[in-house]
Amino acid sequence: MVAAVALVPLLATPALGSASPDPSPTPTPTGVVGFTLAPVGNGLVHAGEPLVASVTLQNGTDAATPAGPVTLALGSAPLRDRSALDAWLGGDTSDVALQEVGATTLTDVAPGAEDTAAIIVAADPVLGGRGPGVYPLAASFDGPEGTLVSTSAMIVPDDAVAETGVGIVVPITAGPLAEGLLTSDQLAALTAPDGALSSALDAVEGTSAILAVDPAVLAAIRVLGTSAPASASAWLERLDALTNSRFTLQFGDSDIAPQLDSGQPRPLGPTSLQYAMSPADFIPPAPTPEPTPTATPTQTPTPTPTPTPTADPSAPVYPTLPELLDVAGERPAVFWPADGTASADVVSTLGAITSGETTSLTLVPSTSTTEGASGATVTARGMAGDAAVLVYDAAISQALQDASSLDEPALRGAPLTAATAHLTLAVADAGGAPLLVTLGRDADRSRIGLTAALSAVTHTAATHPLTLEAFETEPASAVDLVDVEQDAARTAAASAFSDDEARLARFATILDEPSLLLGPERSSTLQLLGVSWLADADRWATAVDEHRAATARTIDGVGLLPVPDVQQISPSADIPVWIHNDLPYAVNVVLYATPDDLRLDLQPSIPVTAPASTNTRVLIPVKAQIGSGDVGITLQLRSPTYEPIGRSQVANVTVRADWERYGLIALGVIVGGLLVVGVIRTIRRRGRARRADAATGDHDTATDAAAPAAAAGTAPAAEETRS
Fold it and tell me: Which residues form the signal peptide (predicted)?
């Protein structure tokens, strides 16, 4: 299928002096005139039916396109195989004999507008007698810049071909995200009646489509608890009630190949979503009081049982991580790497993964096989070495994805016809073996577009729908995978995310709950590796850079502020240090202080709990030893597990030791000692003097006492003499 385009120079228009505001958006000129041929009914024409086709001219320039004739031509013989069909739809019209079968005229088309016309080709005599097959069909428009040609096909079904089962994989995803989870507003929009998620369920309900469900969508609803939008909760219940077979994609539909190519042993998953849950949203409802039973009289009193402690009814009850991610009725261990990214090594690694006793299945496009790379049909059930694979047809899947993304029926018919043509030839090649197709990863699709794509498969002749379980009962054929070149940018991003997460894990040891940082980091990086980002590489690169910068800011969010120089004059003092915490959580750190000189004596470590979003002041007690000079104190924050936090700082301290004080003390001691010695000597001298005085006094007393005695002894004699 080719929608012909012509590049037309954009014509300058004179500027207006004043312009009135346009009540509706004006289409932006693309500089392209598009011409599309779209057969009605997906190109299927049964015996006796006419061929009806539409031709559409889209004017993407800022100049009107004049009217012109359109001719419709049909090949006289069917295309021989799918390679020839690929070439024809790709615009290679050489060596194909065509016969003009219809004509019409397109009118003038204003800038930014389009015109559609129908061409009807009667069954007889032009179409009569044609056998089954896919016939080349082309439309030509003679415009002012030359002839535009659009190619398509007409399919005449073969009622004798063996019926083939076809499985259709429909992804249930939300498109590219840079954050870990959808917000409440995003969920409300996606699950509204006209939202993309609602459209997806509208399209698959009542069909046998195989659902590939992104668990991040379900988790985003469940983490909101009672505050989840009503439409989102109803959508989740509706998904669970569907009978479709299903499997779980990686969280955020994360691309598997870059993860394994970067050295991961297996695909990563979220570690915690607790950060996204609010306690108020998970308070269990109050239990309904039970009626008190009427007491029955008994002869023997029944002992009163010891009451069992009950949980606090007002405490929140959170779902576990597996409960948040649960996809009801899933077939576990199914992997779907992005188209063309899974090498043989990646498939082999995935093939070794099991879920209990269930072996894995890996979906790969047919173009990743040696047979399918040449355009041949590859049936679904296969074995690549020891790894079980499901091969989906790349050409049919791409056409279905293109069709499901178009809202205009006149344009949608072109890719639907291409898908039907490829499927018709694939059914003929398969010989009854099952086929698998997908609708691609485009998340922004309408219900009508999805329904039309699904109907194109189920209405193709000789097909019937298959569930995922049905494929496992089919015999597998050997499949050889082609070499696949790694996506260097995405592999480098996966490796960088892993390194950043390791740094963040060391940093997060300052939290009571490290998962508050590690949970959003893992879920966000998985979203950034989502397959949906492949459609916009530039915006993806910007989102990756912004996320990594945000992670670096988080790691730098706790640290020491610069410390000014300190003059240490007094013998002891406190050096103030400020810790900044930019996180919304309190952190536990230890401040280590190491002087480079023995002049200062200080406390080597101080545990600190810094409140959220504040600067915390910490005082380091310091004592000056003998000596003066400059001392540098190295300050470093560490986590309780001794991980360095932030950059170290140096506090420069000038020490002025008090030698005079110590000298005066020494002199005072000496003088005091001399005084004490002098006092002692004085006391001792006085003691000796007192003892000497005491001895002299005793001698004098004895002499005085002896003199009267002597006088008394001689007096009678004298008296007698006088007588």
Answer: 1-17
Q: Find tokens 């949906």 and name the residue.
A: 532
Q: Strand 477-478 to strand 381-384: parallel, antiparallel, or no bridges (unpaired)?
A: parallel
Pairing of strands 600-602, 114-121: unpaired
Nearest in space to 236 (alpha carbons), one of 279, 170, 273, 190: 190
CATH number for the domain whose boundaries are 4-8+28-157 = 2.60.40.10
Q: List the structure tokens of 19.
A: 């312009």
Phi-psi label, residue 291: left if phi above 0, alpha if psi -120 to 50, beta otherwise = beta
What span, in angstroms and rounded, lies between the C-alpha atoms of 204 and 67?
A: 42
118's enclosing H/E stretch is strand 114-121
Residue 610 is predicted with a pLDDT of 97
The reported pTM is 0.84
CA distances from 410 to 114, 196, 307, 413 (A): 11, 22, 73, 6
Kind and range of the H or E run holding 381: strand 381-384
Those residues whose C-beta lies under 8 Å from the C-beta of residue 276, and which sit 6 or more positions away, are: 180, 181, 223, 519, 520
Q: Evaluate if residue 403 carries a pLDDT over 60.
A: yes
Per-domain residue ranges of the chain: 4-8+28-157, 558-659
Question: Which residue, chain included where needed, has tokens 């929608």?
Answer: 3
d(CA 437, CA 421): 14
